C-alpha cells in the first residue's frame, strides 16, 4: 500500500478540512441540541463535489478515488458525525450503488441530482422486526402489469425525512431468506409512502432518522435496481463499501477526541502543573493516539484495495469493527482526560462519545462483523 497521498488527495483533504472548520465545527453543538443540522449544508456539500466523490464525471460526479472519499469522510466525521452520515448514506450507500447497478436511465435520472445535492438519498433495508437478519425482511413488492405495489415498513432510516429517493429492499418472490429480495428506487413523494421522524436518539441527534411506512406504494417496473431477486446482493455490495465509510467517520471521531484531549491536558492544571505532565494522563492520550493510527491505517487499506481492484469486503468489516470500537474507546478516554468538564456539553467530548456509540451498531453490529470475518477465515457460516 502506498501511504503517500497524491496532490489531488492532499488538496481534497485540505478542502474538506477547511470546509469542516468553517461550516461544521462552529455549529455542531447547536445542531445537536436542536436535533437538526441546518439543511443548507446539503447544497454546500454538493457544490464542493463531496456528494459525488467516486461517481463518474459523466453522471455529475467528481470522479475521485476511494482514498479521497475516505479523507473527506474523516474530516467531516471529525467535525460532526451527523453531517458525515448524510454523505455516507446519500453518496456511499445510494449514489454509488446506483452507479454500480443502475441502468443508463436510472443513472441519468438520479446521479446528477444526488451528486449536486439537489436530491438526497436514503437506504431502506432495516425493518421494525428485522435488523441483523436483514435477509428475512418482510416488505413486499407485488407485480401488477408494468408496476410493482409495495407494502411494509422500514425502521431507523438515516436521511429518512429529508430524502428524495429511497433505495428500498422488498420481497418480490416467495423464496425464504435472502433469495427473492429485489431493490427499488422509490421517490419519497410517491403516494402511500409516509415518514415519521424518530426523536430522542443518544447521538447523531442532528441527523434525520425516520420510520417509513409503505401502504400500496406503486412504482413502475423500471424502478427496480439490479436484476429481480438480486436485491440482497445489491444491499450487501453497498454495505461492504459503506462500512469503509463508517470506519472513516470513526477515525474522524477518534482524531477529534485526540485533539480535544491534548489541548485540554495542556491547559488544565492540577497538583501545580498542567495535567499533561501526569503519566496516567499521558497513558490515556497514548491509548487514543494508538487507536487513531490503527483505525486510520485499516481504513486506508480498504480504500487502497478498492482503488486497485482487489477484494475488500473482509478488510472493510475489519476496519469498521476496529474503528467503531476504537472511536468509542477514544471518546471515552478523552472524556476521562476532561474530568467533570467532559460530562457537560460546554466541551465536545460528550457528544463525540454519544455519536460514536451507534457506529458499533449500524451497517452490521460488532457481533455481525465478527461473524463475517469468522466466516471468511474459517469457511464456516455461523449465522
Ligand atoms: P438486532 O439485530 O435485533 O440485534 C440485537 C443484538 O443481537 C445486537 O447486539 C446484535 O449484535 C445481536 N445479534 C443479532 N444476531 C446475532 C447473531 N447471529 N449472533 C450474535 N449476535 C447477534 N438501517 C437501514 O437500513 N438504513 C439506515 O439508514 C439506517 N440508519 C440507522 C441509523 C441509526 C441511528 C440506527 C440506530 C440504526 C440505523 N439503521 C439503519 C439500522 C441498523 O443497521 C440496525 O439497527 C442494525 O443492523 C442492528 O439491527 P437491530 O437494531 O434490529 O438489532
From TrEMBL:
It comes from the Bacteria. Keywords: FAD, Flavoprotein, Oxidoreductase. The keyword Oxidoreductase applies. Residues 6-118 form the Acyl-CoA dehydrogenase/oxidase N-terminal domain. Residues 229-376 form the Acyl-CoA dehydrogenase/oxidase C-terminal domain. Its cofactor is FAD. Residues 122-217 form the Acyl-CoA oxidase/dehydrogenase middle domain. Belongs to the acyl-CoA dehydrogenase family. This is Acyl-CoA dehydrogenase. It comes from Streptomyces spororaveus. The lineage of its organism: Bacteria, Bacillati, Actinomycetota, Actinomycetes, Kitasatosporales.
Amino acid at each position: 500500500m502506498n501511504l503517500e497521498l497524491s496532490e489531488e488527495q492532499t488538496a481534497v483533504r485540505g478542502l474538506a478540512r477547511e470546509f469542516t472548520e468553517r461550516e461544521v465545527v462552529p455549529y455542531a453543538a447547536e445542531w445537536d441540541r436542536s436535533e437538526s443540522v441546518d439543511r443548507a449544508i446539503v447544497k454546500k456539500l454538493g457544490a464542493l463535489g463531496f456528494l459525488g466523490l467516486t461517481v463518474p464525471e459523466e453522471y455529475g460526479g467528481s470522479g475521485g478515488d476511494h482514498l479521497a472519499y475516505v479523507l473527506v469522510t474523516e474530516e467531516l466525521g471529525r467535525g460532526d458525525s451527523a453531517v458525515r452520515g448524510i454523505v455516507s448514506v446519500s453518496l456511499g450507500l445510494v449514489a454509488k450503488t446506483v452507479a454500480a447497478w443502475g441502468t443508463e436511465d436510472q443513472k441519468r435520472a438520479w446521479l446528477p441530482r444526488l451528486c449536486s445535492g439537489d436530491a438526497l438519498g436514503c437506504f431502506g433495508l432495516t425493518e421494525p422486526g428485522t435488523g441483523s437478519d436483514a435477509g428475512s425482511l418482510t416488505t413486499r413488492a407485488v407485480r401488477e402489469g408494468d408496476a410493482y405495489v409495495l407494502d411494509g415498513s422500514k425502521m431507523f432510516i438515516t436521511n429518512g425525512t429529508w430524502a428524495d429517493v429511497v433505495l428500498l429492499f422488498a420481497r418480490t418472490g416467495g423464496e425464504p431468506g435472502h433469495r427473492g429480495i429485489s431493490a427499488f428506487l422509490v421517490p419519497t413523494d410517491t403516494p402511500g409512502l409516509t415518514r415519521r421522524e424518530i426523536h430522542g436518539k443518544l447521538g447523531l441527534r442532528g441527523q434525520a432518522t425516520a420510520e417509513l411506512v409503505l401502504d400500496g406504494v406503486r412504482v413502475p417496473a423500471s424502478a427496480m435496481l439490479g436484476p429481480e431477486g438480486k436485491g440482497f446482493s445489491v444491499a450487501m455490495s453497498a454495505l461492504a463499501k459503506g462500512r469503509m465509510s463508517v470506519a472513516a467517520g470513526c477515525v474522524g471521531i477518534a482524531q477529534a477526541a485526540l485533539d480535544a484531549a491534548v489541548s485540554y491536558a495542556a491547559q488544565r492544571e492540577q497538583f501545580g502543573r498542567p495535567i499533561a505532565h501526569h503519566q496516567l494522563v499521558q497513558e490515556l492520550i497514548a491509548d487514543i493516539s494508538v487507536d487513531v493510527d490503527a483505525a486510520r491505517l485499516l481504513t486506508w487499506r480498504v480504500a487502497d484495495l478498492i482503488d486497485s481492484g482487489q477484494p475488500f469486503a473482509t478488510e472493510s468489516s475489519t476496519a469498521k469493527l476496529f474503528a467503531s470500537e476504537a472511536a468509542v474507546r477514544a471518546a471515552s478516554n478523552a472524556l476521562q482526560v476532561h474530568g467533570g468538564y467532559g460530562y457537560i456539553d460546554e466541551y465536545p467530548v460528550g457528544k463525540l462519545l454519544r455519536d460514536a456509540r451507534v457506529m458499533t451498531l449500524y451497517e452490521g453490529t460488532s457481533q455481525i462483523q465478527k461473524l463475517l470475518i469468522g466466516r471468511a477465515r474459517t469457511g464456516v457460516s455461523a449465522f
